[in-house]
Each structure stands twice: as C-alpha cells, then as structure tokens.
Design a protein that fits this description.
elongated; 9% strand; 46% helix; 6 strands; two-stranded antiparallel ribbon; mainly alpha; 11 helices; 320 residues
C-alpha cells in the first residue's frame, strides 16, 4: 500500500512538473498574431480558439492551468496581439489583465466634420451607426485609440472632449489683445488659419494678418470661408473659385461681410489654435501663394499686387 502511495505521489509530481514546464516554456507561435476572443466564451472555447490560431499546443493543459490559477472565470474577451513563442503562462496573464490590442484612427487637420465622420464611418473595426451630430470645429484632429468593436460614437466623443480641452488650454494662454470675444470666436479664427496654410512655420504670420485686419476693421477676404459658404462643409468644391462666387450672400462670405464668420469652417488642430491665441507680431495685411506651398506676405496693397503678379506668372509658367 505504501509503495502504491509513493508511486501515485511520484506520478502526481511528474505530471505537475510536466504541466509547469508546458505552461512556462516558449509556445509554438512562429510570429506575432492577433486573435479575437468573442464575448461570452468560456475557458474551453478560449483554449480552442488559441489552439486553432497556433498560440498554444494543448487546449486541455490551458484549461487546467487556468483552473489551477483561478483564472478560468476571469479571461476577458477582446482582440489580443500575442508575441511569437509566447508562453501559456503569459497568455493567461495577458487575458486575465485584459491587455487587449489598441487600434488607431487618425482624423487629419483641416477637415470638415462631414469629412471626419466619413473616416469614422468607413472604419470596419468600429461598430454601430453614428447617432451624434457634431458641429464643425467640435472635433480635434488627432490619432485616437480604440478597441475593436468600440462604437463609432465613442470615437466622436473622444474627439469632442479632446477639442474642448485643447480650446480651453489655448484660450487660457491667449494674448488678450487678440480681438476675439470668447473661445468660440478663437475657434473660428483658428479654423480659417488651418484652411489657409499647411506650412507649420507660417501659421503665426497667417494669424497675424487676420488679427491685423480685424483690428483695422478690414474684411478678412479669405477664400476658404467662401468655399464653406458654397459647400456648407459637406463636400469638396471641386473647382477654383470664380468672381461670381465672391458675391454669394452668406455670413461666411468674408469678401462681403466684416468680422469673423458665425461658426468654424473646419476642425483646426492644436497648432492653429495656438497660432490664433498667440499670433506672431507683424504689420502684414495681405498674403498670396508663392508657388512653393507657402505664401508671400505684404504690408500694403501695392506690394500685395506685386506678389499676386508673381503668383500669376508662376501659374502661367507651370501650366501643364
């Protein structure tokens, strides 16, 4: 009887050693792999999914290890990225902690809300329909993290909260001589700056032109506001502006009406918010494209007209 007991004990020890070795040794996975664990899956189903994906060799040992460690009821659903040769112990720890894979979605600067919503809607890893109706200027251009299956509305809420924070910070650090009455007007100004230049080094100077014009009571005369008046931010204009376009009767037509438009014309990024809040100091009142992606700035109408002539000459010489 004693020999039988000792034999059984030895077998149990050998099994324990084998199980421990199997749990902690490098697994069979040859390269990093993403596995989606469905909600409601028990430890048995999880083991089968991991086995089919090549993450583990022995589903039964995975279930046994999960039970022995008290983790079988705590394996969280979600999308996991497992490293090559990950051990069974590390798989269990990763799933018990819910260390699921973060996905990313980028909303570029200068897009209207309609354009941003198309990006969010087209992301196949998000779920649900968009039920929110954010306004232009309410979404911060940024790269956002989410889990597979998160709602599309949740990304919109992230972008809204990020914009509120960024705008509050810019308003709090603003140059109080900038002629805007509130943070909403600062947001409108930033949206115009965003649409007028894609050159980071120019944002401060572009901002100074609009601030100088506002101070002098001049019309802003900026093309992007007219484009917004024509499209309402819902589509691309698809053509160049015409003289007739500049006559449109809209509060967004800054060739016709003084001051800022009533609302933002796009979603500006942090850099444009900061430029609007703290523009460079200059006496510039005009700017026009220089043909290299940037602009030529001018203090007087005469100087500006010369810059416009330079731009027209550049266009003629570079016609295709």
């Amino acid at each position: 009887m004693k020999k039988l007991f000792l034999f059984g004990l030895l077998c149990a020890l050998l099994v324990a050693v084998y199980v421990k070795k199997a749990v902690y040794e490098p697994g069979p996975l040859v390269e990093d792999t993403v596995v989606l664990i469905n909600r409601g899956a028990g430890s048995g189903s999880v083991a089968e999914m991991l086995s089919q994906a090549g993450v583990i060799k022995h589903p039964f040992l995975f279930k046994l290890a999960a039970r022995l460690q008290g983790l079988d009821k705590h394996l969280k659903a979600g999308e996991y990225q497992f490293a090559s040769h990950v051990s069974m112990a590390d798989v269990l720890a990763q799933m018990a902690k819910g260390e699921v894979l973060y996905r990313k979605l980028t909303l570029p600067e200068g897009l209207t809300t309609a354009q941003m919503l198309k990006i969010i809607q087209s992301n196949e890893l998000l779920s649900g329909e968009i039920t929110l109706e954010p306004e232009d200027g309410s979404l911060l251009p940024e790269t956002y993290s989410f889990f597979r299956g998160d709602s599309r509305d949740s990304v919109i809420i992230q972008a809204q909260e990020a914009m509120q924070k960024a705008l509050s910070e810019a308003w709090g650090k603003r140059d109080e001589t900038v002629p805007v009455k509130n943070s909403q007007e600062l947001l409108v100004l930033a949206s115009i700056i965003e649409k007028e230049t894609g050159v980071p080094e120019e944002r401060g100077l572009v901002a100074s032109v609009f601030v100088n014009r506002l101070r002098k009571g001049m019309r802003l005369q900026t093309d992007p506001t007219v484009i917004y008046a024509l499209t309402e931010g819902k589509k691309d204009l698809g053509r160049l502006l015409t003289r007739k376009d500049l006559e449109i009767d809209s509060p967004y037509n800054t060739y016709k009406y003084y001051g800022l438009p009533p609302k933002p014309i796009c979603n500006p990024g942090k850099a444009s918010l900061e430029a609007a809040a703290n523009p460079e100091v200059s006496s510039y009142l005009y700017f026009v494209a220089d043909g290299t992606g940037g602009h030529r700035f001018a203090n007087s109408l005469n100087e500006h007209n010369q810059n416009v002539s330079h731009w027209k000459k550049y266009q003629r010489n570079n016609k295709k």
